[in-house]
């Protein structure tokens, strides 16, 4: 809802919308705020009921301890960066042409194909975990960042296709007709005309796919051992068998989410425009 439309509404409507926005912001920001608070609190202050939030309870010792094991956390972040970058780049490289074909070309049963692509996301991961493990194990690709990237690609590709297809459906056909008059074929039209105006949904799709791959835990747990561990698995190692130092656990989590938050803030305008265009047009 735009600000102009909100101004035309009555006082009660504006108040309801304002209250809803405040609740949404608090609901969204509360986990991040609690993550930061927990990462700088001492263990004794965290285990109290309620937690002791006095000034003397705050410390940076948790970050010092985590950074002392920087090699372990850095190894996980590098693996996550490789896997997430691979799955995101390939998903965009394959998904953008596929979405364009389903949206603009005379593909038989394009809507049905698009629905089947999206339906793959409805299958729970646990249902394919065992057969997937058997296949990758027989290929000798357990504990390999490439195999993990391919698995993440199978999850990211449908979402990328769906978002971009919605945007491509909203592009006026006159643009392609004008390109055809100038002698441009399908590939030139897609590469030189469609892609340049698709920057917002491409950014939104890329950030969404990157975050999904960066945060994934389940398949990384069953498909990796030591060499290809991603950052969620490294963070889980801060939970001990007999005691969990929550401050160190949250400090590691805060360090790991910092790059993702930075990317989301940097491309926030493109993300908002991309999701609005990709999910509301067509």
Automatic annotation (TrEMBL):
It is a multi-pass membrane protein. Gene3D superfamilies: MetI-like. Residues 77-267 form the ABC transmembrane type-1 domain. GO terms for biological process: transmembrane transport. Keywords: Cell membrane, Membrane, Transmembrane, Transmembrane helix, Transport. The chain crosses the membrane at residues 15-41, 53-75, 81-103, 115-139, 145-168, 189-211, 245-267. It is found in: Cell membrane. One of its GO terms (cellular component) is plasma membrane. Its main location: membrane. Belongs to the binding-protein-dependent transport system permease family. This is Carbohydrate ABC transporter membrane protein 2, CUT1 family. It comes from Arboricoccus pini. The lineage of its organism: Bacteria, Pseudomonadati, Pseudomonadota, Alphaproteobacteria, Geminicoccales.
């Amino acid at each position: 809802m735009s600000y102009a439309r909100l101004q035309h509404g009555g006082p009660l409507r504006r108040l309801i919308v304002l209250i809803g926005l405040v609740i949404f912001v608090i609901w969204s920001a509360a986990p991040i705020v609690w993550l930061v608070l927990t990462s700088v609190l001492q263990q004794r202050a965290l285990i109290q009921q309620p937690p002791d939030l006095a000034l003397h309870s705050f410390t940076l010792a948790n970050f010092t301890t985590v950074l002392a094991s920087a090699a372990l956390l850095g190894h996980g972040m590098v693996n996550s960066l490789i896997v997430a970058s691979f799955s995101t780049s390939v998903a965009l490289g394959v998904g953008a042409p596929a979405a364009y074909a389903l949206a603009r070309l005379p593909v038989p049963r394009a809507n049905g194909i698009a629905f089947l692509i999206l339906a793959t996301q409805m299958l729970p991961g646990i249902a394919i975990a065992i057969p997937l493990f058997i296949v990758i194990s027989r290929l000798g690709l357990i504990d390999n960042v490439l195999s993990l990237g391919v698995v993440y690609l199978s999850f990211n590709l449908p979402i990328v296709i769906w978002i971009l297809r919605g945007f491509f459906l909203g592009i006026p056909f006159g643009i392609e007709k004008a390109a055809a008059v100038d002698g441009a074929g399908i590939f030139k039209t897609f590469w030189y005309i469609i892609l340049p105006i698709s920057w917002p949904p491409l950014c939104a799709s890329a950030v969404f796919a990157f975050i999904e791959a960066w945060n994934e835990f389940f398949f990384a747990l069953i498909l990796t051992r030591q060499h290809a561990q991603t950052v969620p698995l490294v963070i889980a190692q801060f939970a001990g068998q007999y005691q969990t130092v929550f401050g160190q656990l949250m400090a590691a989590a805060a360090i790991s989410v910092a790059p993702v938050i930075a990317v989301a803030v940097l491309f926030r305008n493109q993300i908002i425009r991309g999701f609005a265009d990709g999910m509301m047009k067509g």
